[in-house]
Amino acid sequence: MNDPLQNQSLTSRNVRIYLDHNATTPPAPVLAARWSELLFVTGNPSSIHNESRMPKAWLRETRQKFANYLNCSPLEIIFNSGASEGNSSILKSAWQLRNQNRNEIIVSQVEHPSVIKTAEHLQAQGAIVHWVPVDRAGLIDLDFIKNKLSEKTLLVSVMFANNETGSIFPIKEIAALAHQAGALMHADCVQLLGKYNLEQHPEKLKIFDLDYATFSAHKFYALAGTGVVFIKKNSPWVPLVHGGGQERGRRGGTENVLGIASLGIVLDELKAAKVHVDEMLRLRNLLESSILARIDGCTITAAEGARLANTSSLVMTNVDGETLLMSLDLKGFSVSTGAACSSGNPEPSPVLLAMGLSRIEAQSSLRISLGWQTTEEQIILFVNTLVEVVAKLREINLTGKDLTHAVS
Ligand SMILES: Cc1ncc(COP(=O)(O)O)c(C=O)c1O
Fold this sequence. Notes:
Order of helices and strands: EHHHEHEHEHEHEEEHHEEHEHHEH
Radius of gyration: 22 Å
Bound molecules: pyridoxal-5'-phosphate
CATH class of the largest domain: Alpha Beta
Strand order of the largest sheet: 2-8-7-6-5-3-4
CATH architecture of the largest domain: 3-Layer(aba) Sandwich
Low-confidence stretches: none
CATH superfamily of the largest domain: Type I PLP-dependent aspartate aminotransferase-like (Major domain)
Number of strands: 12
Structural class: alpha/beta
CATH topology of the largest domain: Aspartate Aminotransferase, domain 2
Largest sheet: 7 strands, mixed
Strand content: 5-15%
Number of helices: 13
Distance between the termini: 29 Å
Number of domains: 2
């Protein structure tokens, strides 16, 4: 295979290059420009004095903008602390509303831990959970879903796109199947915004016909600690957090006004998402074809199915993923071996194992996720460094030295 970056000889410079945008995105530059304005957002939005006006206005404005972006009503938007809270709330809420007839939940095996762990928690309380397989091509087993759906199904929860491999799942089709069986449909849409061009569907979120969807501000260039739940009108809901009646009684606790305001500002930027998505796709393709041309024994996980434009999950034989990550870190590159929340955990990624990769393959994996600020120069520097580091680690491996020593 030809290396498209063959004649590029840039070498590493003394700068950090961030390629871990599925873990979190850096705050958008526009936030720095408006930082002093944001710092003046004082006052509790639930108060009725003068100071509450500005935070109340930020909440109202962001809610309306988010609703416009998704093409839903502002009443269908709940602010909370992030997608882990959103995912837990939805599953637990559905479970509280179970009845004798409906007590089964269908969840994919590659969901984020906030879904998996909540489903396991409900399983311990008596819920029957059907875990949907996903193969190594990134394809979800639709027949399994069809077979398990029945008049006993309460909720189906399948993510829009996987954070580790970038695999995009057919949630519209799954939602139609769920609804035929009278079940509710939730999709974790955390990796959608900024990485997928929702504008291409004039119906926006309605295209998927979901009852619930979850989002997280720090995954698309706003501040961490703010999440959004889309809850379709008249869908059942039991609050996870009770409190002073915020969010129309659906989520207690004073709202994270600064985080919500940052979200409102960044939402304006999403109008340009298509341009960024196209450019990330171009750079990701360049990255992958160059790596495949220059590094033997390298495969791309889930490359056969639909994928997010920015994500690449690689398996490199004879290389330990953690050691590779540390070596790249020492050279100024931030990437990931799996989900960020499990870094430092020597166990291989449960998502990759669930997809049928062996433990060795999963332990030799690397996730690279591009962002809006990623440049071609960064990709060239990264590939050059990766080629060099992989060669050194394989050499150490061949000479029988300890595999777990990072090279700098
Ligand atoms: C797919 C997915 N869902 C949920 C979450 C959790 O989001 P938060 O950090 O807002 O709790 C993440 C974050 O890693 C994610 O990637």
